[in-house]
Specification:
The chain has 337 residues and is mostly helical. The chain contains 15 helices and no strands.
Length: 337
Amino acid sequence: MSLLAKDPWEQSLLTLALEARRSMVPMDQGDPVDPALLYLAYEHCEAVTAEHSRSFYMASRLLPREKRQHVRALYAFCRGTDDIVDHPGDTVDAELAQWRQHTLTGDAPGDDLTAIAWTDMCRRTQMPMGYAAQLVDGVARDLRQARYQSFEELAGYCYGVASTVGLMSMQIMGYRSDDAIPYAIKLGIALQLTNILRDVAEDWERGRLYLPLDELAAFGLDESDIARQRVNERWRAFMAFQIQRTRHLYAEAWPGIAMLSRDGRFSTAAAAGLYGAILNRIEQQDYDVFGQRAYVSGLGKLSRLPGLWWRTRAFPSNNADQGPAGQGMITAANTDA
């Protein structure tokens, strides 16, 4: 397999992904779960997805039933991890330790519907738990770090909170070979960068700034401009640069969709296309992400689906269509859209 990476940050993240895949075996099989409880657990995950991410919920509806249930269990797991870190209390370390115990070892308590569905999904898909551990570590990074000096450093954060989701989704969906891994990493970073650009004001209110500090300085900006919510020519130029790079990552990730099982391609393309459209809205708002939140309406999302479907039809068949060789690539950042 080639697994080529052009830049140093890409190579370091690829190394992390391969280490996680190889170093941790899938979750052990446990006792069967009562079917009625399992049904409730997956219904709960569907509700969580519908409430917190309209784009991901719409994209997941394009999957076959079992894969749809599984990616929503994945989303609920990510959401649960986020919630612990986004609303930390005095017991956050204990809460995270308990969450790790419940979700990374198969020790799901009978009253935690997210953990029940997540554990069932991991066992059915033979999920490498190294990816899940990296995600929990990535999300927990928010507890100790609120600034990023460079894009390379920020890309590492994006890998932890978003690319890992794509790598786990690959295990659900079906893919041709490990050559798909670099594409999943890039798509995850593109999705998370989109959320970062959209949520500058919201993150600032939480005491976090995910924009590379050295790049802000290069455009003559600093944190005072964020605090004062200045939208001037320097800010517009900075945001245009960020959007251009993010779009480039989307474009570089697109060929990886062809490596997925056929029934996962449209959903993945929809996730990428619907999130990517947020960048258009930021531009239409003259790069003002302070006064209003950039989003794509339901009608706007629906209008994009036919074109995305048509693009996926041009992809050839591959051996991922014949069964779970490793499994798919819906990548979802950990925030809503």
